[in-house]
């Protein structure tokens, strides 16, 4: 299912992640360990996009803060409602990514993952290592890990007329999740590969 994304040469693309001067060293270390596209930074999402023939594959990663307004597990009815609403919006992928009807795209696979959705957090062994720290900060480190919850959405579409996919319009994502200030995009399409940063004011990317 992840054939296209696994072939994406991330390291070759000119990203602007390093420009974020306020990133903390521990977030960089955390994301290196977990294979993330970039440091966990509120307001910033990451998107992989690959258009190969009739197959379009999109993988969106975002701090939960951007999508639901918090990163702790939902315990109140109000928080649970926010999580449910965000999940429902993420499930409307054809609308969320403004895919043109002329392209005839249908969802082949769709997968949403997050501790907020009840999924098991990734790399629990790292938490175990933290909890056994001898400096007395193990518990804090364990809790801090869960304070940095992310939401991952992976979509694969089959498009009958891929030539109609001239652009990838992220406008609806910024409208739906206004706490998202920018999205760092790694894209491969007929026009080649590129690493770009999308914002609400510049939300349209060309394949």
How is the topology of this model organized?
Layout (H helix, E strand, L loop, with lengths): L2 H4 L18 H10 L9 E9 L2 E9 H5 L8 H15 L1 H4 L8 E9 L10 H8 L6 H9 L3 E10 L7 E3 L1 H6 L5 E8 L2 E8 L4 E3 L1
Parallel strand pairs: 1-6
Antiparallel strand pairs: 1-2, 2-4, 3-4, 5-8, 6-7
Helix pairs in contact: 6-7
Cα(first) to Cα(last) distance is 21 Å
Order of helices and strands: HHEEHHHEHHEEHEEE
Low-confidence stretches: 9-37, 124-146
Share of helical residues: 25-40%
Looking across the biggest beta sheet, what order are the strands in? 3-4-2-1-6-7
Radius of gyration: 18 Å
Number of separate domains: 1
The major β-sheet equals: 6 strands, mixed
Structural class: alpha+beta
Total count of helical runs of at least 4 residues: 8
CA-based shape: globular
- Determine the strand fraction and express it as a percent band: 25-35%
Count of extended strands: 8
Mean pLDDT: 78
What labels would you give this structure?
alpha+beta; 8 helices; 8 strands; 29% strand; 207 residues; 29% helix
């Amino acid at each position: 299912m992840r054939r296209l994304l696994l072939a994406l040469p991330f390291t070759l693309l000119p990203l602007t992640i390093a420009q974020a001067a306020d990133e903390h060293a521990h977030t960089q270390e955390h994301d290196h360990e977990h294979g993330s596209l970039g440091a966990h930074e509120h307001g910033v999402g990451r998107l992989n996009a690959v258009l190969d023939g009739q197959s379009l594959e999109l993988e969106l990663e975002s701090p939960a803060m951007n999508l639901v307004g918090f990163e702790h597990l939902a315990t109140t009815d109000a928080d649970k409602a926010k999580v449910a609403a965000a999940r429902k919006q993420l499930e409307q992928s054809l609308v969320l990514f403004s895919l043109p009807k002329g392209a005839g795209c249908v969802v082949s696979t769709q997968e949403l993952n997050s501790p907020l959705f009840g999924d098991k957090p990734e790399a629990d062994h790292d938490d175990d290592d933290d909890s056994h720290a001898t400096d007395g900060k193990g518990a804090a480190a364990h809790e801090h890990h869960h304070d940095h919850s992310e939401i991952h959405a992976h979509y694969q579409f089959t498009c009958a007329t891929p030539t109609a996919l001239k652009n990838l319009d992220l406008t609806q994502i910024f409208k739906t999740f206004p706490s998202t200030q920018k999205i760092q995009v790694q894209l491969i399409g007929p026009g080649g590969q590129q690493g770009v940063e999308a914002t609400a004011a510049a939300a349209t990317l060309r394949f």
